[in-house]
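Entry 14: structure prediction run for Probable glucose-6-phosphate isomerase. Input pasted below.
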Amino acid sequence: MYVDIGNALSSVATPGVSCDSLERLDERVADAHERIERGITDREFGYAALALPEDTDADVIETAVEPLDDIDVDAVLTVGIGGSALGAATVSGALGPGSAGTFVLDNVDPRRTARLLDDLPLADTAVHVVSRSGTTAETLANFLVVRDAYEAEGVDWTERTVVTTGPDGPLRTLADEEDLPALDVPDGVPGRFSALSTVGLVPAAIQGHDVSGLLAGGQAGRESLSGSLFDCPAYALGAISYALEERGASQHVCMPYSEDLEFFAEWFAQLWAESLGKDGLGQTPVRALGATDQHSQLQLYRAGRHDKQVTFVRPREHPAVPIPETDVEGLSYLGGSTLGDLLDAEFEATEASLAAAGLPNVRVEIDRLDAESVGELLYGYEAACVLAGELMGVETFTQPAVEWGKRAARGLLGGGEFEEADAVAEKQRLLVE
Ligand SMILES: O=P(O)(O)OC[C@H]1O[C@](O)(CO)[C@@H](O)[C@@H]1O
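Run finished. Output tokens:
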């Protein structure tokens, strides 16, 4: 992973960071790194995520999906939400379908769920149901609906399902009762940091992707951690994001220039929001896609409020798709180059256009969309997030603010007495229709 923070310096951007400030900040990065290393070594809650490349056993995952070899799997359906879906979606999205298409059920939208189950060839579809807590309503409800759909078609879902969950809870009970292949979520690792584990890697294993390669990429990220932001790409990204937020960049746009990294921007949004959105702080993550959103969002980024950091992400290598020669007036300049050339020109031009407008931006690159590079990218962003959390002084690894809504929803469905549910009924109304 390569990180270029040049366009975030105060000589280019406002808000921007001076080199002197970066030098001073680097002293705090050294202290934070020591703290992080201690947490990793002791496998402390949260920090243990940064030991996953070492602790995740690819053979355990490969063995768990072996029974699916007897079935002609054309599709992999992940049933999970948040960190229990986005890691898998990102890995499979970035590496492509492999031997089976990727589908994610990470919402309880009846139209979409019904349509997806209608469209999927259930007999040739493997299901990975994932929940760290084993109690998440959306995941459990979706799984009950999926199971019913299989039974309605007379297809044995138990032969096609792999579960990943915690030691107890309804999902573990169901796995035990039905004797399903069940994997454990990694100890001490919050969902959003668990892509390089049983949580994020089962679909990739079913699709025949290089799970060991993903972990090797993560390990390369692990070995790149050092006591200085000037030596460690992940810490450069984390430190500059922290410094830019301090200076007013309250929004962090993640703009991959690759359709296959679209889920990566979603994964980033959960990682950044749920980890750093604490104590009245935290950059608001914004998902964008290059070059598409140049034609929808760029006007705002360049000429709107200067409250954004834009991080451009790209694989350096593209498959060659030539643009045919043409003598159509005004188009000949395109002929003879490739779509990848055009995408790279758009990337560099948009980056320069933000710098010219004085808007801070960061460049993150990986060599190509292969297992090692994707593993390193995921690890790098997780380490960047952990470092930013250390510098902000927030509790990076929990997400207490999400529980209020869960209790309210459960109360509304008769799942218990929750005062939050009462508050829903007391909603202030000013209905206009
Ligand atoms: O894996 P689980 O326990 O089903 O949780 C799913 C997601 O829900 C959250 O707890 C937020 O509600 C996330 O932190 C987590 O990734």
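Notes: The mean pLDDT is 96. Will compare against the previous run tomorrow.
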